[in-house]
Specification:
The chain is mainly α. It has helices at about 5-10, 10-30, 35-60, 70-85, 90-120, 120-140, 155-160, 165-185, 185-195, 200-205, 210-235, 245-255, 265-285, 290-314, and strands at about 160, 165.
Length: about 325
């Protein structure tokens, strides 16, 4: 019984590539295969993974979102401020999570409305939203970090569920939910149809505008959740957090086999791509590769993934 076509062209190839890069980095750095580094990699992957789930849905629908890094910063700062607004720890944590997720959802929905209602290209709308959110963050904080957060707030970023770090557990649940939504629901089929041919989707009865707003709202919600999780892990809401996260996340999604043209992609491929990018960043850091060279490597990976996608389409 042979390997299924999809696995041979996406997840299976990425899996082999991850194994190869792990072998290379283990040779270059003795600390790569240590338990502490494994935990560090999984925690880094968790934040990117949460964001990658939403980005996968957006890109399958034929769109893109450049604002997620700024939404992460804004949600983290709002959550940090909200967590200090109450003297009751349980209420403070709940308020912080709702505030961070709420502001992320609002930002995403706003982008979706401008894209769906006014027909402005997603690249322009989300670029503007990226600038707006980052400006709001620095306006609120004056450029200073919001620290001294309640200890209970840190559980979301540093706590454990049955010895599994909470961010990793959240990421796993979201990937499972993303798989079910995209593979097993009518909404998932609508997303694929929308990315494949928007006009045909409209003629077939799909409410295209509503679908786009929902897609970007969901992406904003997950960006908000990632921002709250990151703030809880750092123990502070930093206005400069989330910088260039959108590049790593888009790279992970594209490497995972999701087409930039829309209509094609799988959540399992995104998981594999997220692991690949996470291991790549960690391994290059441990190998003492300077940050500028790391960006070159990431750019080469993106170009290779896009070339492979175009080759498959041809």
């Amino acid at each position: 019984m042979g390997i299924p076509e999809r696995l041979r062209t996406t997840e299976f190839i990425i899996f082999l590539t991850v194994v190869a890069e792990c072998a290379v980095f283990a040779f270059l750095s003795p600390s790569f295969l240590t338990l502490n580094n494994f935990i560090n990699v999984t925690l880094q992957i968790a934040i990117y993974g949460i964001l990658a789930v939403g980005m996968t849905v957006v890109m399958i629908s034929g769109g893109i979102d450049l604002s997620i890094g700024s939404i992460v910063a804004l949600a983290g700062v709002i959550a940090a401020i909200s967590s200090k607004a109450s003297f009751v720890p349980s209420i403070a944590v709940a308020t912080a999570i709702l505030a961070g997720v709420g502001i992320g959802t609002l930002a995403g929905a706003t982008s979706g409305i401008f894209i769906a209602r006014f027909g402005i290209p997603p690249f322009i709308v989300t670029l503007a939203m990226m600038t707006i959110c980052r400006g709001v963050v620095f306006t609120i904080t004056g450029g200073f970090t919001e620290g001294e957060l309640p200890d209970s707030f840190g559980w979301l970023g540093r706590g454990h569920l049955w010895h599994v770090p909470v961010p990793v557990a959240v990421m796993a649940l979201l990937f499972a939910a993303g798989y079910v939504v995209l593979e097993q629901t009518a909404f998932g089929r609508h997303i694929y149809a929308l990315g494949g041919n928007e006009e045909a989707s409209r003629l077939s009865g799909i409410r295209v505008r509503r679908a786009k707003v929902l897609v970007y709202s969901l992406n904003g919600l997950l960006a908000g959740l990632a921002g709250v999780t990151l703030a809880a892990r750092l123990g502070a809401g930093a206005p400069n957090s989330g910088l260039q996260y959108e590049l790593d996340v888009i790279a992970a999604v594209v490497v995972g086999g999701t087409s930039l043209s829309g209509g094609r992609g799988r959540i399992l491929g995104t998981l594999a791509g997220t692991v690949f990018i996470g291991v790549l960043n960690n391994g290059l850091n441990l190998a003492n590769v300077d940050p500028y060279t790391q960006k070159i490597a990431l750019g080469i990976v993106i170009l290779a993934a896009v070339w492979f996608d175009m080759a498959q389409r041809r």
